[in-house]
Amino acid sequence: MDTPEYGFETLAIHAGAAPDPTTGARTTPIYQTTSYVFDDVDHAASLFNLQVFGNIYTRITNPTTSVLEERVAALEGGRAALAAASGHAAQLLVMHTLLEVGDEFIASDKLYGGSITQFSHSFRRMGWTGLLVDPDDPDNFRRALTPRTKAIFIESLANPGGIVIDIESIAAIAHGAGIPLIVDNTLASPYLCRPFGWGADIIVHSLTKFLGGHGNSIGGILVESGKFDWAAGGKFPALTEPTPSYHNLRFYETFGDMAFCVAARTVGLRDLGPALSPMNAFLILTGIETLPLRMARHCENALKVATFLESHDRVAWVSYAGLPSSRYHNLARKYLSNGAGAVMTFGVKGGYEAGIRLVENVSLLSHLANIGDTRSLIIHPASTTHRQLNAEQLVASGSGPDVVRLSIGLESANDIIRDLDQALAA
Amino acid sequence: MDHDYYPEDLIRGVLRSVRTIAMVGASAHWNRPSYFAMKYLQRKGYRIVPVNPKEAGGMILGERVYGALAEIPFKIDMVDIFRASQAAGPITDEAIEVGARVVWMQLGVRDDAAARRAERAGLTVIMNRCPKIEYGRLSGEIGWLGINTRVISSKRKKGV
Ligand SMILES: Cc1ncc(COP(=O)(O)O)c(C=O)c1O
Questions:
Q1: Cα Dmax for chain A
Q2: Best label site of A41, A380, A386, B101, fewest CB within 10 Å?
Q3: Whether domain A291-425 has CATH 3.40.50.970
Q4: Are strands A377-379 and A366-367 parallel, antiparallel or unpaired?
Q5: How far apart are CA B34 and CA A254, in angstroms?
Q6: Contacts of A49 in chain B (CB under 8 A)
Q7: Interface ipTM
Q8: Chain centroid, CA B62 distance in Å
């Protein structure tokens, strides 16, 4: 082996970081600068031509952000990563690198509502068609393939909750069609699920959630496995054909197994512009150092809350893949062996009105539109995050009128349970 | 010698000890991978001597181009093979002939029989790797592009 195989906990703290070469500073400094001096004109030319490694301008690279990128690449077992201003920005950069006008991709219909909206409306205006299919039967992806399909997009553990997707079967369908599988691994985090091991080719994250973990910074990232052959089917001209804005450089030929991230950075991020701020990169990096501890406790608390809710007489059903009653329990045992995550949904008896009453009566849980915080969070998707969806999409995405979503935090489990109990009684 | 996995110290040792590198298959076109590697390694203090019969007598990045390794009138430490695997065998034999200490075949280039001949003659052989990427990885520079170097260290990094 090149290097000893370090454990996940070690990588969460050390990967990508080293003491600052000049000052010896041990934690990663916040390089709060827009730009970087050139040694001379020749150095500048080499940088602009991508012939040497180095920083030009923080829209494209930043030394704090690059530590974050390497950290997440290491945690996912990937070749390279590229951070962006938000999870949505990362999804945009992935699709911008893969798709031409008129191209299609197939996405699971069990996704974060914002992703469904991004795919169905904003991407469509760019000439990219995202078809939605039910992922519970992986063959639905095969049936939706056309010659213009360039990718499949799924969430490993789907938001709003409790739904586990059969990554390995869907990866096989994607590879049979010569296209990459993109997995949004936000809800699981690499602590619970490692999609590259099941055949994923690109992973995206909203860093805003469990990786940052403290509800203080928006961010996103994409990671490439380095294993996909972009040239085989001739489907990805942005990677294999000459790039006019780089004097006809061919990314795949020049950068090989890291070509996807280099292209997404030096074309997508450079031209579309959604760069992460160094301050946010620093906060997210600090969060990642405790990811293993936090995820373990998130899962432990969530299982206690789910078990409590399942026996509550005002609760109609609970969807949490950690419960033996879940239809996704077997998939969870395969893909999420360290725990089924912190996010779950449940149905309150009394439907839409009862859902609203509950979120307004909690006093420890916070009523807000986020997940993956140290704090426990609650939301009624049908009246908030998922209100852009029509009635059919609401049900398909698991956000019907009675659905309440929880993101269980790191407080004392008893306190979370007591608060839900009193609010359900109100 | 296991040519699937190279210990980090081996690669480090090569990059620290060689100074003059003949690059067989060096291109004169600025957007070719060999040109990228040559320019990068020059900035790291290596002397790169381009070898390319089609460009012989011309100049690439300030260096005279030779038509073959045997035509280089001074000693070289390492031969970097930027050619397809089928061409690597004869070039390796020439490298042994001219007294190079290291034969390095680029990413995607591998010839195990040639490697064995070179090793029997006392040379160090590295295959299917890029010296630019390895330098960038071991110095941490490639991490600036978000690439996973797989290097963990609590020491200040300088160079390889
Ligand atoms: C699974 C999932 N993917 C993507 C996103 C979008 O991320 P961001 O809000 O950082 O743009 C979210 C946000 O809720 C999410 O939950």
A1: 73
A2: A41
A3: no
A4: parallel
A5: 9
A6: 30-31, 36
A7: 0.87
A8: 18
